[in-house]
Amino acid sequence: MNETDVARAMHSARQRMELVGIPDPARDASALFLAVAEDAVGSGDTMPPDIADAYERAIRRRLRREPVSHITGRRAFWMHDFIVNADVLDPRPDTETLIEAALQTKFTNVLDLGTGSGCILLSLLYEQTEAAGLGTDISDDALKVAAQNAAMVGVADRVTFLNSDWLASVEGTFDLIVSNPPYIAASEMADLSPEVLHEPHLALTPGGDGLDAYRIIARDASAHLTSGGRLLVETGATQADDVSALFHKAGLTNVAVKCDLNGKDRVVSAEKPGNGQ
């Protein structure tokens, strides 16, 4: 069988994606080609039939607005390319704001609520080499992905995963609790891109005003925080005031808001009062 011209195939892919309104089709055409041709051997100007077929299948998936990360099976976050699929939320650059904030103070054990792919927990453990962690999720499929990522990152010996509805099955205390819970309000779901709607519904929205998870976390976190322990959550850009109020009401102290690189409110942090407070 004849080999396929790479430039021509990528040009066609860009045109087809542009016609259906996919943003930055050139980037996606290139990323998908690199993913399917990663181990291919050739002249560089042509691709063999098996690679051409794989590329065409990838492009067709993208034309159905499936995220590039789901097609390639990887998404870059912090220091690693994490394994992702339709069972977990895609890591976003905004979430790195939570990592930066959490790393400002040393911790020895960390709890990640709604861990999904594990990207937050595992990135923290990678940076804090003497810490141990627990990741919870209500999805066994998500926990399987997180376990794969733990092995990939090299921290599997320092992490445990648990099926739990937020803190319901959690035992013990932690000096750091983190979470990127579902926070999209029900009224906002219709405005999401087709790509986002390929992600797990439960990881996107709790319904209603989007604050249900924060209410549970604010109510239950203190019982699982050490004295002076920290709580950090990612929020939607308009939710920081509401989440801060929930934390104040729960008796947490030093409530603060951290902005992401775009200047939007992104992380709310708080502490459990220590001795004498």
Automatic annotation (TrEMBL):
Encoding gene per record: prmC
Domain Release factor glutamine methyltransferase N-terminal: 9-73
Name by which UniProt lists this protein: Release factor glutamine methyltransferase
Reaction equations catalysed: L-glutaminyl-[peptide chain release factor] + S-adenosyl-L-methionine = N(5)-methyl-L-glutaminyl-[peptide chain release factor] + S-adenosyl-L-homocysteine + H(+)
GO MF term set: nucleic acid binding; peptide chain release factor N(5)-glutamine methyltransferase activity
Signal peptide stretch: none
Positions bound to S-adenosyl-L-methionine: 114-118, 137, 166, 180
GO biological process: methylation
Protein task: Methylates the class 1 translation termination release factors RF1/PrfA and RF2/PrfB on the glutamine residue of the universally conserved GGQ motif.
Domain of life: Bacteria
EC class of the enzyme, as a word: transferase
Membership in a protein family: Belongs to the protein N5-glutamine methyltransferase family. PrmC subfamily.
Domain called Methyltransferase small: residue spans: 95-209
Entry binding sites for substrate: 180-183
Enzyme Commission code: 2.1.1.297
Gene3D superfamilies: DNA helicase RuvA subunit, C-terminal domain, Vaccinia Virus protein VP39
Entry keyword set: Methyltransferase, S-adenosyl-L-methionine, Transferase
A matching Pfam family: MTS
